[in-house]
Amino acid sequence: MKEFIEYVVKALVDNPNEVSVTQIDGEKTVIFELRCNESDIGKVIGKQGRTIKAIRTLLGSAAAKADVRAMLEIVE
Selecting from 3.40.50.720, 2.120.10.30, 3.10.20.30, 3.30.300.20, what CATH number does the domain 2-74 have? Predict the structure, then answer.
């Protein structure tokens, strides 16, 4: 799932080398922290949050197959 997030976000931003995803494992929850260049945050979020919402939806589907709950947070 971490690689999926990196792949999608790197395709969206202008500075793909500054994208990093940190995975924090819990008992039944996995939290992914996304860090990228400040100028690229708007591209990741998208108009009215549509892009980040779509990424979170796909991440939730992948997590359901693995029987865990996944959350994606953008860290500035």
Answer: 3.30.300.20
